[in-house]
Amino acid sequence: MAGKTDYREITSREREIMEANGCQCDDWGRIHAAPGFRPGFFRNVAFSGDVYLGVMDGSRTLKSGMVLSEGIYDARIHNCTVGDHVAIHRVNGYIANYIIEDNVTITDCGRIVNEGSGTFGNGIAVNVLNETGGRHVRMWDRLSAQLGYVIALYRHRSKTISAVDSLIDSWCDTVRSDFGTIGDGSVVTGCGIIRNVRTGPAASIENSLKLEEGSINSCREAPVYIGPGVIMEKFIVCSGSVVTESTIVNRCFIGQGCHLGKHYSAENSLFFANCGGYHGEACSIFAGPFTVTHHKSTLLIAGIYSFMNAGSGSNQSNHMYKLGPIHQGIMERGSKTTSDSYLLWPARIGPFTLVMGRHYKNMDTSMLPFSYLIEHNDESILVPGINLRSVGTIRDARKWPMRDIRKDPVLIDQINYNLLSPYTIRKMIQGRDLLRNLRENSGPKSEYYTYDSMKINRQSLERGIELYQTGINKFLGNSLIKRLEGVKLNSVDGLRKRLRPDLDAGRGEWTDIAGLIAPQNEVEALLDRIDEGVVGSLDEINAGFAALHSAYYDMEWSWAAARIEEEEGRDLKEFTPGDVVNIVEKWRKSVVGLDYKLYEDAMKEFTLSSRTGFGIDGAEEVKRADFEAVRGDFESNPVVSSIMDHIKVKSALGDELTARMKKLI
Questions:
Q1: Which of 26, 196, 272, 481 has the smallest set of CB atoms within 10 Å of its CB?
Q2: What is the per-residue pLDDT across 393-444, written as a single tens digit (0 to 9) for each?
Q3: Which residues contact 591 (CB under 8 A, 6 or more apart)?
């Protein structure tokens, strides 16, 4: 695309050719052409204002095989710059105040217009969690899940929020323009109204009804697709995302690799990496990475979610008909809801918890992760830790990395996929201790224990303590083995030196910042630097979160080392090879025991009752054969085989370290 200084006024001969082709203009002196301009590629065009035209002299073949000539045909163009090798055909309304970059195709559209000076969705406030606006997040082109989390949930840090707000103002100043943009190589076809929208390279906008005040941040590596029937107002869509099939969006940020379709409706919501929304509705939600809802009549409202799957008909209430919709809910990473589930906000659901049934009391299960929350006779029953032995939990943890479809060279959100981490293990430690205290205070023979409007039966409590301890032993053993893996140790002093953490960062509490697992004090330190002006741009803030993500494993050992000392009642400076062997043996028992529980859980999917409905017109042998043809046999199932491989690999690691420790002994 030529620079403005390269353009010239069109010649009288060029004007004659264009007029002969049905083109018209009130002031041809304001029509400018790039070097190599070909006037024969313009037909039935009404020009007005200042127009800059590039070189159009060829054709392109569409996916259908149809050949489309470059140039402008049957359109009205006002105050536009049109790049090289552009094809514009049949614009029923007009294109005004737009920069149309090279290789763009526009066909059969209504009105594409930029009105006044705008920031294309940047700076617009999204009222997440609290519909009345107390936690609003202002959008910008590269809003990360982590920064969004801080803005929405750290309102107590007023200085930080004010500093970030100023940085967003500065960003808005850099993108403000009187002209919209359609990026290089984009295709816009069959659209109704596009107003005050900026589009990046390689985007496809097809048969959308209305797009107003937004940015489509497409890139060549990860194009954006906006499909039929879509209505979007006040929005930002990031690279690799799809919005299609009559989806309606108002005041929403849609992050990288998201897919909203099948008549989905969303307002005042933030969707971060790899979210999926189909059929249902979202209102004032903070959808962290991998929040997915597939079903009609499913409403997500005024909550924060991540790695979450909402069952059909899932619903929440965010007000008690008193002061309005002011209540919020927190569903921590990995939580799920079954069909027809209901939660009354305010509530907080702990990590990797399955919610079944309808719950009409405000509750907090945050210290009891990996649980089932079940409705029974209008009461909320909690089964602590049971999800640790569910093969579905393991399948979820393994599928998320494979479902990360982001292709952009710059990944905005920082995502830690670890099922067990300082964040979840701290909650297991708290959960174990909480259950022990309940047992001690209520008596070991109690049939039920009451905790925060929920009931826990005695068997579930005892099993929960055991499962949490198993998870703790597994994680701490994993961390220890990883720390000593591949390290040559010649003495006990060498062992103790290796066990010493390389840095102090990580020793305190950890948090999950919408997919990023990091020490709380390190997050606070980053925010302090924002307060002090040391971090001076929004991109630098994102870089700070990326640095925390990169340092995860170094900081994880600092935390794990302190917990090992806590659990063993012994300082690492005093550790012997025998202490290491003892931890490895507890780890081995936990890993193998948990894996066999997962194996048994997976086996339930292959029982006779699971074959009901298979082999519809045959006897038992046909039923078995039909089942295996569709589902495969148990031993060859990829999840089952991965469990058995995991047992072998982990056992070998434990054997190798034990043998090295025995040599030191």
A1: 26
A2: 777 778 899 999 999 999 999 999 999 999 999 999 999 999 999 999 887 7
A3: 474, 477, 646, 647, 650, 651, 654
Angle formed by the axes of helices 538-550 and 520-531, to 10°?
Answer: 160
**Phi and psi angles of residue 77, each rounded to the nearest 5 degrees, phi first:** -120, 125
Q: How far apart are CA 605 and CA 611, in angstroms?
A: 9
Q: Which residue has the tokens 């094809």?
A: 87
Tell me which residue has tokens 């009642």: 569
In the numeric block, which tokens belong to residue 99?
């920069």
Angle between helices 458-484 and 552-568 (to 10 degrees): 120
CA distance 351 to 357: 18
Residue 412 has a CB neighbour count (10 Å cut-off) of 23
Average pLDDT over residues 373-396: 88
Give 398's contacts (C-beta < 8 A, 6+ positions apart).
Answer: 639, 642
- Alpha-carbon span 435 to 343, nearest angstrom: 23
Helix (H, G, I), strand (E, B) or coil at 195: strand
pLDDT for 618: 67
End-to-end CA distance of the chain: give it in Å, rounded: 73
Q: Nearest 5°: phi and psi at 317?
A: -115, 135
Assess whether the previous peptide bond of 346 is cis (omega < 30° from 0): yes
Query: pLDDT digits over 510-554, tens only?
Result: 999 999 999 999 999 999 999 999 998 999 999 999 999 999 999
pLDDT of residue 648: 78
Q: Which residues lie below 8 Å from residue 65, measured CB to CB, with a gap of 6+? A: none
CA-CA distance, 16 to 13, in Å (whole number)? Answer: 5
Would you state the structure tokens that stand for residue 491, as one six-digit string?
A: 């003495």
Residue 71: both structure tokens together = 């140039």
Sequential DSSP letters for 69-112: ESEEEEEEEES-EE-TT-EEEEEEEEEESEEE-TT-EEEEEEEE
* Distant-in-sequence, close-in-space partners of 458: CB < 8 Å, separation ≥ 6: 444, 445, 446, 447, 448, 449
Residue (of 160, 164, 145) closest to 524 by Cα position: 160
Residue type, 638: P
How do strand 315-317 and strand 342-344 relate by DSSP bridges? parallel
And the tokens for 189?
A: 């076809």
| For the chain, domain boundaries | 415-445+462-574, 577-664
The one-letter code for the residue type at 110 is G
User: CA-CA distance, 290 to 399, in Å (whole number)?
Assistant: 11
In the predicted model, is pLDDT for residue 635 greater than 80? no
Which has the closest alpha carbon to 357: 369, 340, 344? 340
Which DSSP category does 177 fall into? Answer: B
pTM of this structure: 0.94
Residue 266, Cα to own-chain centre: how many angstroms? 16
Q: Is the pLDDT of residue 581 over 60?
A: yes
Q: Tell me how far CA of residue 89 lies from CA of 44, 70, 84, 318, 652, in angstroms.
A: 10, 9, 15, 49, 66
Cα 290 to chain centroid distance, Å, stands at 5
